[in-house]
Amino acid sequence: MPPKPDIRAVIMAGGSGTRFWPLSRRKLAKQFLPIVADRTMLEETVRRILPLVPARRIYTVANAAQTRTIRRLLPGLPEAHYLVEPEARNTAPSLILATARIHLENPRAVVAVLPSDHLITAGDVFLRKLAAAAEAAAAEDALITFGIPPSFPSTGYGYLRYRKGAARTFRKEPFRAVEAFVEKPSYEKAVAFLKKGGYAWNSGMFLWRADVFAAKLERFAPEFFEAWTRILAALRSKSRARVAAAFASIPATSIDYALMEKAGGVLAAEGDFGWSDVGAWSSLAGIWPRDADGNAFKGASVVLDARNNLAYNPGRLTALVGVDDLVIVNTPDALLVCRRDKDQSVKRILELLAARGDSECL
Amino acid sequence: MPPKPDIRAVIMAGGSGTRFWPLSRRKLAKQFLPIVADRTMLEETVRRILPLVPARRIYTVANAAQTRTIRRLLPGLPEAHYLVEPEARNTAPSLILATARIHLENPRAVVAVLPSDHLITAGDVFLRKLAAAAEAAAAEDALITFGIPPSFPSTGYGYLRYRKGAARTFRKEPFRAVEAFVEKPSYEKAVAFLKKGGYAWNSGMFLWRADVFAAKLERFAPEFFEAWTRILAALRSKSRARVAAAFASIPATSIDYALMEKAGGVLAAEGDFGWSDVGAWSSLAGIWPRDADGNAFKGASVVLDARNNLAYNPGRLTALVGVDDLVIVNTPDALLVCRRDKDQSVKRILELLAARGDSECL
Hints:
Spore Coat Polysaccharide Biosynthesis Protein SpsA, Chain A; 16 strands
């Protein structure tokens, strides 16, 4: 039996989502909102992994303002584990920084990269698969991920395509080789993917051993490997200015684009643990309990001839009469009423407000 | 030239409207809300007539709780003029009480009965017509009213049918004889009325000399005349209990049904002064200013692809995305989102809340 891997979780909490406005704000992104449970999504993310990863092995990555919120929500992490992004530069720089930080402590530690704003309903299944993935990452020179079984031809997610052939098994969990990462497809392509089979949604969750990550960078992403060595040196120097300078030198791109899409040897387990990225208000309609007419509420409600509405209005009564397919979000200073299939347009509302200099509710 | 009539205005403020929920409540009816202007409809009603009827000649009729609100909103009336209905019994008992009260002071006084929750946009036209109507009431043995020129085949109003023939003129204002009062018609009948001509909406505003009112009761509504004499005697006795007993003995019906529909000699002037009874939220869409897409707001707004909505949300931002024809009303404890053509169903929401014992927001 292999030794138990030294798992370090890196919780990515730097997202600045606008799609849950008016509940989410510039300074209060989705991960800091209790939209799927009584606790914030960030807290849920940490609670979920605690049986496998103790708090002393958990890190967060976010900007300085977000980190203040994180310290308040997650007061139990080691002081040095609240990693602050010197600036917003997408996920590649942040994960190079976090992995380098962990590499200094233990090059063979397994880094589990977890978004802080995803929903997982089958937490026990997830934990089991996470343990298996950590074992795979510890044992193999491979980057590990989860492929979400696609439930519809989404054009909002990237896909991974499995290579044909036998799966490797860790802790009885099959891991299949990933042949390619595919960018968000057209609707026609997405339909074809589902028909053909062998495709899964890119979950954005990754595991790697710190030294394997470095080796993959060196081989598949040399320009990022240079940054990696600069970051390592800067961290060793303990100079915040040097770390910031090294960080700023890394191209502002996603880790998917920087490494995952290019690297060989990616393995994926099936992410069949009730995953949702909770991309917009309407996605909560599948998560909150619904009444017989398909209405879902946070807060008291009274309904007359109304179907498939979603209303967030905690502490107040929401009365619906003769309306269908609406998203309604009421906050102390702003009320949103939106057609359910238009909830991706909420960010345009923020642009409109910003354009007219109306920053109060942003 | 005839002597100037002694006009007394009786402001009927006892209505318990439910159709402006959640802004209106059991204890806060439409007349106490600032829904068409910055002041409440009751205050607007009084302000409108002050150039013709000084405060010392204005009376209000409402129940005890409402009268407390009225005293606060209209502190300038004589103490004895806040007439309290011993119980809610529709308009006939209240107007018999009020007219009897005025009859004791001056039998030849002209009583102008004015609902407290109607909108009149052309206040100057209204005042001129009110003065003419008062002169007609002073001079004639007639009940006077205003017929509202119908702008659409409404099934929500009663109608009056004019008698053919020449109009009488007072202060250059023509008054036509009313042949009949017609109850709320079917849609087909309403269409026929408009096509045929000679019909007007019953405005619910009436003028009569106190002694003429008594004489009409005696002739056309003898059972109400008995009550009238009991009320007069009770008022003379100054016994509140006797007044309440006499009041309770009057059939709980409308003055329209008790007297107007039966009495001969009703004259009506054209009520072309921008009248609206503001019957429900959607009627405000014709009153509040609208944007180019037909949206009307109280409160700040931001709109994306949304048309013909009405939102009451003062002090907060309302954001609409992709929605049409909604009525949205946000209050500190309840939010209503209603299809505009269903706003008459709002009272059913109140029934649903009451039925489940949820009285907090009623």
